[in-house]
Structures are given as C-alpha cells and as structure tokens.
Amino acid sequence: MPNAHSTDTVTGRDPSGADWWREAVVYQVYPRSFADGNGDGIGDLRGVLSHLDHLVELGVDAVWFSPFYPSALTDGGYDVDDYRDVDPAIGTLEEFDEVVRRLGEAGIKVVIDIVANHSSDRHAWFREALAAGRGSRARERYVFREGRGENGELPPSDWPAFFGGPAWTRVADGQWYLHLFTPHQPDWNWADAEVRADFLRTLRFWADRGVAGFRVDAAMCLTKDLSEPLPDWDDVLPGFPALVGGADGRGEGVLFGEGQNPIYDRDDVQEVYAEWRALFDSYEPPRFAVAEAWVAAHRRARYASPRSLGQVFNFDLLLASWDATAFGEVIRQNLGLAEASGSSSTWVLSNHDMPRHATRLAADPVNGTDPAGGTLDAPPPPGGTGLDRARAASMLILALPGSAYLYQGEELGLPEVSLPREVAQDPVTGKEDAAVPSRDGCRVPLPWNTQAPFFGFSEHAAHLPQPTWFGDLSVALQSGDPGSTLSLYRRALRIRRQLRTEGPVTWLDLGPRLVAFTRGARWTSVTNFGDTPAYLPPGDVLLSSRPLVDGMLPADSTAWLRNPASPA
Ligand code: NOJ
Ligand code: CA
Fold first, then answer.
1. How far apart are CA 562 and CA 549, in angstroms?
2. Least packed by Cβ within 10 Å: which of 30, 253, 402, 489?
3. What is the reported pTM?
4. How much distance in Å is there from the Cα of 65 to the middle of ligand 2?
5. Phi-psi region of 369 (alpha: psi -120 to 50; beta: other; left: phi over 0)
C-alpha cells in the first residue's frame, strides 16, 4: 500500500520514512541562548515557538535540543535533576508537546539530548544515596567506594575528571563517589538493573511524546571497570595522563585504549545500546540516535552500528586546520568508515562545546597565531579570513553525503566571543587541567533584531552578555541581504534537498589547494583552500560562498556547479 505520508516532490524521498536521518540537516538549539519568550533573560520554549519561521525558512530537517530538563546549571543543563520534565525556567511539558507538534506540522523532527553517564547531584536518587549512607541499596545506583590510604583519605583510584581534578569526591561519611565531569555530576552505575530500567523508561517517555531521536551525551563513558581493586588508569594505560588529544590531535591510536580503558569506550557499553536499540526499533518509524563518542576513529563503527545507536558524530573537522589535505583526508576517511558501519557519515563544524568555526578556522597553526574572536566591545578585526573560511567549509560539508549538524548562530556567521571572567558560567573556565577550554564564548544569546533591546533575544539582559556589535549580525538584518551568511545557508540548504539524493562522491583532482568532487552525474563542489583564485571546471555556478572574480573561485571559498552534460 502506498505510504500515506507525502513525499518530497524534489527528491522523491519520504521524509517520514525510517531513514530520514541518513541525509538530514540537524540544527542544534541550545535552549537558554536561542530566544527568550517571557523576558527573564533566559531562552525558553516560548522563544522557540516564536521563531519557528526561522527554522522553516532555513530549511532544516530536524532540531536537536540541548538539555532543557530541570537543572542547577552547573554544566549548562548537562547536570540533570529530573529526566522526565522541563525546567520551569525553560517551559512546561505542554509547551514541549507544542514545539514537537508545530515543528512536526512544518515537517521538522525533534531530537533531544540524553545525558546518561551522570545525573546532577540534585537528582532524587543521588539525594537518597547521600542520606541512606554506606552499604545502602540507594548508593548502588551510583559509584560509591571507600578511599585508599590509612583513613580512606585518598581517592579510590587515579581516574581523572574531564573538567579537571580527580574523578572522585568525598562525602560527609567518608565514602567517595565517582564523577567523570564536575563533582555536581555523579556518574550512574550502569551495572545496576534499576538504573538501566529507569533510562528505558525515560527514552520511552520522550519517544511516546513524538520525539524522533536522541543525541546520546558522553556515549563512550557509561560503563566502567568496577572490579576490585579498581584498576588505576596509569596501570592500564601507562604514560597517558590526558583524557583527550593524541599525537595527530584526533584521538587516533591507543590513547583511549582498545576497550581496556577502565572508564572509557569499553566494549560492554554496547550492551546498554543493544537494549536501547530494541526499544527504538519497537517504534514506527524506529527512533533514531546519534552517539557523542570521542573515541578513536576506528572504534566509531561500534556506536554507529544498526545494532547500537545507529549513528555517531565525526568531530574530526572540529579539530582540523584549514588545509586541503587535512579536510580531504578527514572526508575520505569518514565516508569510508560510515559505509563500513552501515550508517551514514556526520559532519560538524560547530557545536556548544567548541569555539565557533567562523573564528576557529582563521587559526594559523603553522605560524602559531591564535584566531581573533570578538570581545564585548569590539568585533573581530576586519580583514580576517575566518568568516570566508567558515562559509566555504559549511558549503563543503553540505555538499557531502551524510548528516550535517549545524549549531545555532553559525547560519549568521557568528564568531566566538571572548567574555570577561566575571560573567563565566562554564565550569571549565580557568581550569588548566580540563580537557576543553571555556565554552561560554559560543553560547552567547542570538541576535534576532538589530534595533530591538538585547537584539530581540529578550526584553531583559541576557543570561550571558551579548556584544555591542551583535546587532550587525542579526537575523532580521541578514534576511534582507542576499550576500549575507544567512541567505547563503538558506540557499545552500534548498539546493542540498536536491543534491542529497544524487549519489556518491567521485573525487576530482584539481590541484593540491582544492578539494573537489562530483555527486552523481550532475553536481560538483569545489573548495579553494589556497590564497589565490583558482580555475573552476566547466558548469553553471549554482552558488558560491564568495563572489567569483573573473569567473575564478577566490581564496577561502566554495562553489557548487551543475555539470554541463547533465540533463536539465
Ligand atoms: C558533552 C556535552 O556536549 C558537554 O556540553 C557536557 O559538558 C558534557 N558532555 C558532560 O555532560
Ligand atoms: Ca525566559
């Protein structure tokens, strides 16, 4: 029987089909910084509802919401008090349902964040565990241990926390609990049946509300080696004191171990996801999931397998410098990995954890120069290459097979903002042994209107201050400007709707400074990483991230062409 859902007239695809996520454009909303609907300076679901037109006009397939659950915000909402509710500062469950319904009416799916490695220390079960004391059933849901040393005054193992310091904190009665992130984020004990069952209940709760999929936070961390005595990190992986990095900067190689790391990317975490997969597949269409798994590239397939979460983030472009060889290698490798895993590839240039790519890509690692973002009073210095490169890189990933994950504000070309220490919210700010630098600079609330107070984000000062010059990048201003970054994204996404069914990538060798490929028989994408204009192959130019110069592709830009031999 023909499917009752409407098909996309351009692509012939059924957007309601089970495979919608394979070639999707997913737009990440960081709710507290998107739009404020009630004037308290904190972004919320009313704010989302009042800007649905922005998402529709942009042409995204899905919206991924970073956590909106009740939270003390010690880690931007990734410290969850209650997994089955909405923070009152962000809205209500009824408003959430309205968001799902109204986005759904516009053909846009909702993906939510599942933070399964840890709860917050305000979660009812953690409070119960503290009150119940050592040896109690309540403490088994988390990881409580006696300390080492004569009086238990030393942490139970040498495990490090990602956000600095040891992964253990001592409680009043002398026991220690495990937290791979901040002390306000106690790790769940995934060997505990009740914990597992409770997460299944949470996944069902949201899937039943119409959520199409889940972004699984810290997916590589859930299970730990809890055999006694606890294995020290340094015994298992001697000489690897850091949690992230690696010789090639991509976490490649043995840094994270091959499943033997006591706290990270363990093989048995897949048992958890096999259970989740069975739940996802009991829905029609099956619920989708993407793993946030910072693991060696060759181990990603475990998470991307159709028996596991089904898709995994490839963060390699977050760590790549602006260089044709670096980008080309990342793309080749990830297309191959995705195919081998039976999933589709993913492309990410910005998210809420990394400096925005309009700033990051201006870095010059060869000469050691830092990219200049903006400050509260001054925009990035004129003449920088960051925005040009960001626009080129965005068009490049949008031309590739797979899913493109966009982060709110990148469609405006927002740069990273360096904020004064006094306004910092991110717990890693100033922590030298943290695995990431402060992330507040990419979480500054969006500018909607140039003239309005607080640039239309709120009627009151935003929870993180906006720079004085943010209005120059507002949605309203850019909407009317055909040369704006917003217009470029809108056009690129429209063209991509056709492009994404065109077929696989065939590489074109146009010289060492260019990354160029065709999709199927009709489309060509060319990116110029060099500093002088480059010749383009024959074809009609559909879109370019910078205006062509005498028919040539300028430095730091991408063009899409329709091949001359193709049918009209
Ligand atoms: C990854 C999230 O993206 C990040 O924002 C968060 O701090 C950690 N996981 C801990 O949940
Ligand atoms: Ca609000």
1. 19
2. 253
3. 0.95
4. 16
5. beta
